[in-house]
Amino acid sequence: MKAIGLDIGTTTISAAVIDMNNGKTEEAYTIGNDSFLPAEHEWEKLQDAGKILEKARRLLDDILESHTDIRVIGLTGQMHGIVYLDKNGRHVSPLYTWQDGRGAQTCFDGSSLCELIQKRYDLRVYTGYGLVTHLYHVRTGQAPEEAVKICTIMDYLGMSLTGRVEPVLHSSVAASLGFYDVEKGCFMKKILEQEGADTAILPEVTEDFQSIGTYKGIPVGVAIGDNQASFLGAVRSARDAVLVNMGTGGQISVLSDRCFAAKGIEARPFAPGWFLLVGASLCGGRAYAMLESFFRSYAECIGAEGINHYEMMERLTERGEPQEKLKVSTCFSGTRDKPGKRGHIKNIGISNFTPEAFVYGVLDGMADELYAMYHKIAKGIGDSRNTIIASGNGIRKNRHLQDIMGKKFGMSLQMAENEEEAACGAAFAGMIGTGFLALEDAVGIGGFREA
User: Do 2-228+421-443 and 236-415 have matching folds?
Assistant: First the structure.
């Protein structure tokens, strides 16, 4: 028997076929998610929800034709963003993605919506969070008149597959929309109502992994957040490990039974009684891609085209760590708390103004940003781990970053066994929700509370 996990990412849609007997990946698939829509403003980040569903469904159908013994379908995808739905459960808007910047626009008496919410309620919410986007639309009169519910893109896919007309969101996804009390497990309806929102638009929420219906007779699990799915797909001994993910952004995740939060650290729902403590760097692997683009731009200017610059950057790093290192902050896209913050390069001297020092400095800065977040988590919960499980192509394909990360954290670093961690985790979540797998077995949390 096998399970399928589908992961709707920002730039790709991935799937993994899992052997339900041993949890191994039998086959993995990735297709492009070229669904971004043109927008009036640079800060608007919109995708075509209908096109995404068409692509995901076609991929799923192709897999089902090749594998006739599928017993479970699990779902995950990009968190935070929202789609508006009408009374028939059909989308009446684009997908407003997690990258959308309307919540950071200073168009409310010189303040952004996120700043206003923090001033009024001492509550941190961030641009790109679905309910921030919705409140912006409410305040500016841009919410679709036909809209009766909101949900994420992976929940919309689940509705489409199972014929539901109203969404049900796992708490890991609901919390990503913002204005969610993680400890109480519910939306902050009073604040939303005070800000003029009709809370009838909020979706139903469940804390449990469960089935939401069937597709072609196959149970479909409730979609879970991609962060939680990646943890499920990568970590087998949660009491010992910290998960570091490096993709377009960067993320560090620690499983705990404590709902700890601090500046730059979120407590995200995982399962009843369990939380993922998460720190996120907005630039992450994009910082390295920016450096590649810098080198490529210069090379093309002098007529040196067709060069694999990532390979050249690796060669530069092989020259060894500079004696006098550049100190690079890779907050090139700001931070959740300070969207306007920018990175910097310091400690430039005569001996280290070199390409190899820049490459090493950027890698070191990427690791620094995540280590600072882990240090805050470990101090806050009084518990440290001894192993890094690393996932995401940004670190999987860069052995130098693996070495730097391991040294920075002072831990043994292991690459996640499954490459499509989020898709695999979605499959595991589907198996848990349909009774084929126990959560304790999935991430090895038996006895964790007594540690």
Answer: yes
